[in-house]
Write a structure and sequence with these properties.
Layout: E1 4-7, H1 13-25, E2 30-31, H2 33-36, H3 43-53, E3 56-60, H4 63-67, H5 69-80, E4 84-89, H6 99-102, E5 107-108, H7 114-151
Parallel strand pairs: 1-2, 1-3, 3-4, 4-5
Length: 152
């Protein structure tokens, strides 16, 4: 199961692959449809399953992505499921994000060097891993509590 789902326009596939590669190198499980889907899979079902299973959604918020009906559907599902959403902009200012995305603090990569972009992605990866570790700790404590109460 993926920790993070990347929502993007196919016009931005090169950036999507860059983001995916960096997150995977940082030990974050990523769903990126062109890489994660297998030939013959019913992609709409798999995309929805990946969205449900991930805690985080990275929205590669380009002008093309903001105009994409598919991206809008993915983000509607993500917001409805209360996923942690991180808009990443580079070809438009964060102030031009659609209203529903503008409520989320955006990472602005406009004019960023490769190293600056990597540094921003490393921060995101660390937050995702920290969030996952806390979730696993809480789950472990809940199981321990159930085991103790079952003994009594």
């Amino acid at each position: 199961m993926a920790d993070v789902f990347i929502s993007f326009s196919s016009k931005d596939e090169q950036l999507a692959n860059f983001v995916r590669d960096h997150l995977v190198a940082s030990n974050v499980a990523v769903f990126l449809a062109p890489v994660s889907l297998q030939p013959g899979q019913q992609w709409s079902e798999e995309v929805l399953k990946a969205l449900r299973g991930s805690s985080w959604v990275i929205f590669l918020a380009s002008r093309a992505a903001c105009a994409s009906a598919w991206v809008q559907q993915e983000l509607g599902v993500a917001i409805g499921m209360q996923k942690k959403l991180v808009p990443v902009v580079w070809d438009m200012p964060p102030s031009e994000l659609p209203g529903w995305a503008a409520r989320h603090h955006a990472i602005n990569l406009a004019g960023a060097s490769i190293e600056e972009a990597r540094a921003q992605l490393t921060l995101i990866a660390e937050r995702i891993k920290s969030d996952k570790a806390v979730g696993l700790l809480v789950l472990g404590l809940m199981i321990a509590g159930l085991l103790i109460s079952a003994k009594n």
